[in-house]
Design a protein that fits this description.
By secondary structure, the protein is α/β, with parallel strands linked by helices. The chain has 14 helices and 13 strands. Helix 2 links the parallel strand 3 and strand 4.
Amino acid sequence: MTRRRLLTATLGLTLAAASVIALAGCAPSGASASAPSTNATAASGYPLTIDNCGTKVTFTEAPQRVVTIKSTTLETMLALGLQSRIVGTAFTDGPVAPQWKGAAAKLASLSDQVPGQEATLTAEPDLVYAGWESNVTAEGAGDRPTLASLGVNTYVAPSACKEAGYKPDPLTFDDVFSEIEQAGAIFGVPDRAAALVSKQKAQLQAITPDASHLSALWYSSGTDTPYVGAGIGAPEMMMKAAGITNVAAGVKDTWSALGWESIVADDPDVIVLVDATWNTAASKIANLEANPATAGMTAVKEKHYVTVPFPAGEAGVRNVEAVASITSQLAKLGL
């Protein structure tokens, strides 16, 4: 079915005849475990079927027109040298890492937030590559069954799966590396993915964790009630690799709201500040130092702050880099 007929049936849109293209549909089959892995056909090519967060997705060929939602998915594609296949980006969490700045410079941005279905389809994608499951819902770029009916595949970063049996518990670097390898299989570049994983494993192995037995708070956002890195997600994984103990490690979630009273009582040695364009590390520091309840914490009094860019704070290709940065910043603080 042509894109014109599909969009006419669902959105009432009219496209110029020159833009009519054929799209490959989704044929559900196969399964995977909660840790992402390719099925047996990946070694020889396509069709490739993946059980992705409970939705079975089949790739009959490598996607060529991709809309990325969130920085993690954009940067995975950039790290794999796939910028020419990106027809639109959306909901990025901050600037891309310097090594990919040139590759990302000419990419079209569909929206600063999650794009709606109409905006997404206007880019004529054959795949929506989402960082969160909520990105591919009726309130976002379109729910997965509807997009599939329009010939648009969807793939959610497996580390972000929420369903029982799919949600990483806890997330590990093996999960992160497997996710990169699965993306390599989907896009038909398994050798690039293998090389990237090999490089990152070596970099991770070379990091010397901090040996000072420091406690830390991963402060993502929020003022009245902070939103923090909890006990089973990317923040916990990275803090553990850096040798610091998460004060919210006992909270069985990836991220969670946590009251200041509990945090003040724990009195962390270090505060890891997530730096986002809409909620900067500097603004968090100002709030911490202005609030009498938090100003007395050891980390605040001693200015024991470590910063992590938002895109590096979620599971993805920048996590190893983030761990190295955390340990380096701790050393500069003399901790």
